[in-house]
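Sample 3 of the quickstart, ligand zinc ion:
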Amino acid sequence: MRATILHTTRDIRLEDVDTPQLIDDGDAVVRVVASCICGSDLWPYRGLPEIDEPRHIGHEFVGIVESVGSTVQTVQPGAFVIAPFAFSDNTCPMCERGVHTSCVNGGYWGSDDRNGHFADGGQGEIVRVPLADGTLVATPEQPDEALIPHLLTLSDVFPTGHHAAVSAGVGPGSTVAVVGDGAVGLSAVLAAKRLGAARVVAMSSHEDRQRIAREFGADEIVAERGKPGAAAVREIFDGLGADQVLECVGTADSMKQAMLSTRPGGRVGYVGVPHGVELNIPAMFGRNVGLVGGVAPARAYIEELLPDVLDGTVTPGLVFDQTLPLDQVADGYRAMDERTSIKTMLSV
Ligand SMILES: [Zn+2]
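Result:
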C-alpha cells in the first residue's frame, strides 16, 4: 500500500510501504476513504523543527473497516468510521474526564502505540488503528459521498474549533471574536454560532476566507490584524472587547491580538499549536482575562457533533477548497504552504 512520507523539509512523497495488519486484539484495519492536510502538518513540512529521519504523516481520516481484532466490539468490518487525530481507549480516567488526548493508553498517528507497535499515518491507503473500540466512531449507515468532507472535519478541525469555544465558555448570547482564518478558525466561527453566540467577529483579510466565515455565521469581519485589529473588535463590542476570543493560530502575534480583543473578565480559548507564544500575566491579572484550552480532545466531541453533520444542520466541510487524489499529496502540501488552499482533502 502507499503512504505519505515526509523525508525532509518540503520533501514529501507517496511511497510503497508494508501493508498494515492486525497486531493487537483491540486493533482494526481501516481502508482510508479520505484524509486531509492539517495546518499543523505544515510545521514539520517547513522544517519547524527539522526532522532527522523520514516519517509517516497525516492524522485526519475517515474510512471503511476492513478487519478487526478478536476483542473489538463497537465497529465491524464494512462500517464507515471517523478517526480522531489521536487514538484513545475512551475508558481510562482521563478519557472519562473528556481529555482523550491525555489517554493513559493512547497516542498519535505516525508513531508507536503503547505496545511498541507502529500506528500508521493518516495520509495513506490503509491504517492500523490501535484501541479501535475507543478510537473509532462509526456512522449509523454508509454516508452519501457528498457528506464525506463534512464527516472528515470531525477528525480534527471542527472539534478543535469547538474546543476553543467550549474552553472559553461560549454559550447563548456570547459575544465572540475569532483570531485566525485557517480551517480551525473558520470552524471556530461555526462552533461558536452553533453554541448560540449572539455576535461573532471573524478576523480575516482574505476574501475567500471571509466568505466561508460568513457562511458559517460570522456577523462581522475585521480585516485588520494586530493592535488595529483588536481595536476594531473592541469598537464593535462597546469599546470593551469580546466575551470570548478564540485563538486559532498559535503565534506570539495572534495571542497578543486575542488578548487585546478580550473584554475585562473575558476568556481566551486557545487551540493554535503554540510557537513562541509569551503571556503578559500581569496584564491578564489586571484585566481578569483567563486563558483556557490546549490540544483538542476531538474524540470527546465527535458523538455530540456528528448528528448535526449527518442531518446537514452544519456543513463544516466547506473548509475544503481543494480535493486532490492521494498521489498528488505533494501538490496539496505546496498549495497549503503557499496559502493558495485553505485546506486540501485527499481522496484515496
Ligand atoms: Zn483513555
